[in-house]
Design a protein that fits this description.
- With 102 residues, the protein is mostly helical.
- 68% of the residues lie in helices and 0% in strands.
- The chain has six helices and no strands.
- α1 crosses α3.
- The longest helix is centred in the N-terminal third of the chain and has 23 residues.
Length: 102
């Protein structure tokens, strides 16, 4: 995930927490910290949170198979020989071992 997306997500979470506090306790944390709803810093933070919400809205339209974590997956180091079926050489060696012990 890019740094820009992470910042947008953090600001959106801050906004969600603030709205939760307003809804449950009628307490505006952003206004409390930055000096009221009309203060310049509060208005700036409210604006950034609103823009972050719009950025995060684009996540709904990202294809599931094209996320950042999928692009960074290195499939060349994955070994499918054991996970999805038995190895042919292993079966042949096991049969030879069984014949030797008889």
């Amino acid at each position: 995930m890019s740094t820009f997306k992470r910042i947008a997500l953090v600001l959106t979470v801050i906004g969600a927490i603030n709205w939760g506090l307003i809804g449950f306790f009628q307490f505006d944390l952003v206004a409390f910290i930055f000096g009221g709803q009309g203060a310049a810093l509060s208005r700036l933070l409210y604006s950034l949170i609103g823009l972050s919400g719009l950025v995060c809205l684009s996540y709904f339209f990202d294809p599931v198979d094209q996320t950042d974590s999928d692009r960074s997956l290195n499939t060349s180091s994955v070994n499918y020989g054991v996970e999805f079926g038995e190895d042919f050489e292993y079966d042949r060696n096991r049969d030879n071992d069984d014949n030797r012990t008889r």
